[in-house]
Protein 1
Amino acid sequence: MRLFRKEPKAEQLKVIIIGAGEVGYHIAHRLTRENKQVVVVDQQPEALRRVAEALDVQTIRGSGSSPVVLHDAGAEDADIILAVTDSDEINIIACLFANIISPASTKLARIRNEEYTLYRDALAQDILNISMIINPEVEVVKNIDRLLSLPGAVDYSEFADGRIRMVGMRICSGPLVGVRLMNFRTVISDGDVIIAAIVRNDELIIPTGMDEIRADDVVYFVCTESSLESVRNVVAALEDPIRSALIVGGGNIGMRLATLFERKGYHTKLVDRDEERCAVLAEKLNSTIVLHGDGTDQDLLREENAGTMDAVVCLTSDEETNILCSLLAKNMGVRKTVARINKVAYQPLVRAIGIEHSVSPRLSAVNSILHYIRKGKVLSSVAIRGEEAEVMEALAEAQSDIVGRPIHKLSFPKGALVLALVRGTEVVIPSGDTVIEPQDRILILSTRQAVSDVEQALMVKLKAY
Amino acid sequence: MRIGYTLYVIGALLCSVGLTMIFPLMFGVYYQDESILPLLYSMGITVIAGGCLIAVFRERTKTLLNHREGMAIVALGWIGAGIAGALPFWFGGMLGFTDALFESVSGFTTTGSTVLTDIEIVPRGLLMWRSLTHWLGGMGIIVLSLAILPFLGVGGMQLYKAEVPGPVPDKLKPRIKDTAMALWKVYLLFSVLQAVLLYFGGMDVFDSICHTFGTMATGGFSTKNASVGHYDSGYLQTVIIIFMFIAGVNFSLHFRLLLGEPGAFLKDAEFRFYTVVVLVSTAVVALAVYGTEYDSFLEALRHAAFQVVSICTTTGFATADYEQWAPVTMAVLLFLTFLGGCAGSTGGGIKCMRVLLLLKQAYHEIFRLIHPHSVSYVKLGNRIVRAEVLSGVLGFFVLYIGLFVLSSTLIAAMGVDVLTAFSATAACIGNIGPGLGSVGPAENFAHLPQAAKWVLTLCMLLGRLEIYTVFILFVPEFWRK
């Protein structure tokens, strides 16, 4: 290990963030921690003040769609321009001018309207040269669907373009209870499944072979796409699949989700408070029953037999309503509840009060943007159980320490674990004798404390850049 | 309401109708029968009458038709065409004026009820004219005029709306003239195809053309006393079943098929409804006649399908005297009398679209009772049906039933037995043709009292123009300046 690392150029990246909303704020937060130059542009002085007070960034007041403002923000020498306001139109126009002022920069836009995303390719290549279009709503809908369609799942993420899945499942009873990890293959014979971590009483355990699975543990399995079925068969064979769902809040996400549920043949009901919105929803949706009312109105919920629904998904823009509504539904006997919670600060609270699943479109926007910016060394990273541990997807560089030796001989930090490899198109669930080859994509689980050591290990010995 | 301009347009219509008599005339000349003179006289009178109207009310400026003028032109134009079409039969000497008018209106409105007791002795030129009135009336004489008369393009939408059946007429092309042209092209194409198929099945040229006209227009005039039953050929009957079915489908779907969009059929809710109704009814009727009337199941199926499709599309051909069949078949056929084909087809009746909308509306009411807080709409395909369309459909349904009640009571009051009175009225308003009782498929309308024929003639017109267009002429408000 070298004492004096040359400062990588990546740390001098200049990033302009247009929009200081929840998405903009959290990206700025993560980027400043990585020591990047960040400029935030917004029209709202309030939002700017919040960013300026909390973070080490430059703020510029004005509309991001204005070329003059972009110029003031120094778009000419920016490396990355992120247009993440709540308005698709402003984001698109901002990228249009950014492309004129600074054609070489990487541009990312948050675009939510489906009708725009139909022309994704045109926006991305021909006209605006946008490098990536982020539609967190689509991600969130997918995420909710995964949580619901995989009985017992409390957490779910995908790596390597969906070829590797990590799923956290609560084990209540069944054949896995009382099994030591070294013996778990006697229960799940599929070789493509590995147990990555166990969460017991809200504490993360990086397991060894001697650890035992107990009832009420959340076990994180890493597996290939095809072997997910065998995990489900063992863990959640007893649970019935979802057949009916109540969606509270008919915004974009609610509508997308209802459309998806219709396609899957669920019996779907959708509640929204705004009558005009209900009219739009009733027009766009077919078999979904659109109800006008308040999701926290107990009479309405009882009238529509909400207690007999398999799942209740609360997606209004107000997190307090979502939390309340989820709790009400749980109280009425609903099996699964999902609440949309945007404020990152609320996330740890959510489990404490008994809501099993929460989704956040903004957080997923932040994640996908960061994923894109980090491209190169660490391909993506997902936090599990709050921030206690992280699963990273990284590329094994030829000159790094980890290449060319069997895994059990690696001087890998304590608290870190190689979960899977992707070699070409093939997914390898490694054993101790597996050798990592250059250009493998590796999936590493690491506790928060070990993250920096893991990054060191991944580091190329001689800086290529 | 500019009466002069209205009459001017009607004059042009009459000229067109008169000129179409050339077609049957050619057959008259070829067969050298007694139809030549009646057709020549009729053509002369019609063209001259039309010419006079044009000359007297000629206007130099093209003016936009308003809604009222459009309705008046269509209603009066149809009455004019009905009278012009009656002339050949009247001059031919075999029918009195009432009977001739009944036959002509029955032709133009694609009803196919006849007062001729022996069809086979009628001169061929007149038979061809009788069938041609079907074909002209099927797609609509106004739609035909829109396609060929250039000056009608101005404000033509009013005319088009007044004639094309269905709650909301489709416009296939941006311009009304092109829409009319497209419809007629599709119509012509299917007609040629069917005539060729019939010809290869052993019909002669004359019969195959006449039966094609009767089929594609969902009319039902045959050249034989026993209707299509005359031809004991499974092939011919099957061809006619298929083309009757085609003629009962919305022509804009055929148009889209020809544009290379065959998926349009299955996506269309009305088409699915129509198909299901036809299939289920065929199954019920086939099971009822299998073993009792027909020993072979295929034969039972073919005859059942023929009668069901014939009545449902409002064609009115027959291959069997279904009055001898089990009562359940007659009940099924009587209800189909009211249903009719799809909107935008050549069929009559209430139309599948309207019945479908009424059913949906009824379900919608029940749904609202179960979910009082729900926000929902009656939808067709993926689109909301506007409230005024729904109330229009409801109004139409009430008028249709009201007309049925009034006319059948009138006819019964003339001493006609109830089954005959009811079924004859239903068959005429629905533009079907044969009814039950003494106007069944094996009988005709000749023996009905004169007054009953007038009532039924009016019913046919009202049915073809979907009531509103004709009714409106009798409302004083309509004529007020």
Protein 2
Amino acid sequence: MATIIGIKTKREFRGLTRWGRIFRNLGMILPVIVFVVLIFTAIFADLGWIGLPDVGLAPYPYDETSLPDRRMPPAWVEGGSTKHLLGTDTLGRDILSRAIYGARVSLSVSLLAIAITASVGTVLGIISGYAGGRTDAFIMRITDIAMSFPPLLLAILIAVSLGPGFFTVIFALSVLGWAGYARIIRGETLRLRNSDFVAQAQIIGTPSWRIMLRHIFPNILNVLLIGITLAVGAMILAEAMMSYLGIGIPPPMPSWGSMVADGRNDLDRAWWISTFPGILIGLVVLSGNFLGDWIRDKTDPRLRQL
Amino acid sequence: MSKIILEVEDLRTSFFTHAGEFKAIDGVSFTVHEGEIFGLVGESACGKTVTGLSLLRLLQEPVGQVVGGKIILNGRDILELSKKEMREVRGKEISMILQDPMTSLNPVYTVGNQISESVKLHQHVSDDKVEDEVISALRLLRIPAPEQRIRDYPFQMSGGMRQRVVGSIAMSCRPHLLIADEPTTALDATIQMQYLALFKDIQKQTNVGIIFITHDFGVVANICQRVAVMYAGKIVETASTSTIFKAPRHPYTHALINSVPRLDRKDDRLYSIEGQPPSLLNLPPGCRFAPRCPDVQEICQKEQPPEVEISEGHTVSCWKVK
């Protein structure tokens, strides 16, 4: 936390046209658009949650089968129909509708898992770094164990013993995921712990919990935020992997991972079944990474372009 | 002489590392009176800052520990207080100003917010009174337009201004004792003079006792009433400022004063003391200054010199004086 250059005006924007400004911040604008659209469609897939199950963005219910329309290609491909814009799967279910409902599952699972892992990891990391000594050694050894355990193996173990379901998936993703946060946050805390402003806070008699909450936590927020945005992609991928392996959200509830898995036997004759959910997974992972990079560039004084 | 607020008796602080025990402070005794500026002078790594941190009990435990002695503040030994009681003492009875104003403030809060933290911790006053206290603390350090300044962030202020804010935090609860750890070292010469004048002013206004840690004899001459000279974890000489400058008795004090550049003498080369301070891991059995001392005798190598009071308030630890 060396000198922070005190520039009140947004000098980085000066001299740029509006399009120049937009272009420079595409790394933030595009991912935000992707997330807003996806969250919007997830919420308004249907309005069942306010008592209107028949109204919504999804053209069909996710489990409505139509055997005559099995493996119908997307509308713009020969043999396709505007009835099913992105085609249908092997049971004749509408891919677009399932992808929209899938956003619900994929996003809620990954966001909840991130909320849990980030909170646990941050709390443990700050305590570990600030307390030091035995507390630190104890927490860090547990972190080491968590990081050295193969996550997929544990996820399978948990899914098998608890039975598949929404909360099982979240639990399986969270049980090891906090360790990475704990490590990073501990490192940042160590750096801040020896800084003069923490010493100054101790000098005036500030209790330890208050120093952690008021002086250390706000100063690690940027690192935490970068970690979270990068984790969005990783969590969606992990959830997709679990669903692909059949230990995720149980059918017929769609998640993007299970949709990709559904189409794997038909890749040669019905490529669209796996491709569209696959594109969505890629899009979200990429958006998370871009957003993380953008935040890092903006908050790290060494990388900030003036 | 006015009331004694701090009495340090035979304070010993060590750092326990893999290499062994570093005796950073080895039997230091001194007193500070109400409304007095007491200088603690010595070269780098002689234990000045560690003395300050020991008084606040803010050493990084378990590596750094006070291993002996007494710190009697306002009549009670603060080494015997519980951690919670000690937190009450910090900021309220003893406070400290650190060296570097650029890093002593938290970049994410306004200065008003940071000063109010101490006020809220120690003075149980209503929220609208807190702001009054904050403004009065800024006013004490003569910060212009405090009503506007409380909404500024540290990065909007200059180094000198920030050091005043740090001073405001330290003084916000009007402590009895203020430890100033080289508060002017990071400032340029003109701002330094202003800051020193401010210190004298604060001391007069609030009657606070100040321990002024420095390596600069110019600063000592300017503001201190009494001075203790430290060398390798021990105080070698304590006297009033005028005595220290006119009649230093310890060879180290003498050498230190001689090494200050002076305008009224034409020297080609600046005086320097030969050799280096001893390693705190491997201290000589006798006087610590013996290896570098120009007046070394046989006994100096073997036994540590006792502390002798040669006149009222002037104590020296040197065999030559004995």
